[in-house]
Amino acid sequence: MSRRELREQIFKLLFRVEFNTPEDMPEQEAFFFAQEDAAKGEDAGYISDKYNRICQKLPEIDRMLDEKAKGWNTARMSKVDLTILRLAVYEMKYDDSVPDRVAINEAVELAKKFGQDASSGFVNGILAKFA
Predict the structure, then answer these.
(1) Is the pLDDT of residue 73 over 90?
(2) Mean pLDDT for the chain overall
C-alpha cells in the first residue's frame, strides 16, 4: 500500500474510537483487520502500530487541539474532522518521518474525501496553527 492508503486505513480504524469504549477497541481492531479489504502482513502491522501509538497520545493531542482551536473544542467538532485532526497532529508532533506540510496536505485530502463541504478548510485552518 502507498503511504496515503496506509494513512486512510489508520483514519478508518481511529474513527472507531469515537463509537466504542477503550475496552472494546481491541475487538474492533480485530474486526477491522478481519474485513476482506483490510491490510495484511507488513501493512497491517504498520497500521496497528501507528494506531496504537496515536491512541496512547489522544489525551495530549486533544488538549493541544482544544488550545489551538479558538472557539472550538474537541467535543464540538465533527467526528470525522476530529479523527483527521488527531491523526495529523500526531504526525506533526510525534512522527519525525512525516514532514508537517505532508501531514497537513494529507489531512486536507482526507477531509475532502470523508468530511463535509467545509471540512477541508476547517482542518487546514486548525493545522496551520500547529505548523
Answers:
(1) no
(2) 92
Distance, CA of 26 to chain centre: 17
**pLDDT at residue 102 tops 90:** yes
**String of DSSP letters for 35-86:** STTS--HHHHHHHHHHHHHHHHHHHHHHHHHHHHSTT--TTTS-HHHHHHHH
Domains of the chain listed by start with CATH number: 3-128 (1.10.940.10)
C-alpha count within 13 angstroms, C-beta hemisphere, residue 122 = 25
In terms of Cα–Cα distance, which of 30, 40, 43 is closest to 2?
A: 43
Cα dihedral 4, 6, 8, 10 sign: negative
Output the pTM of the full model: 0.92
**pLDDT tens-digit readout, 16-25:** 999 999 899 9
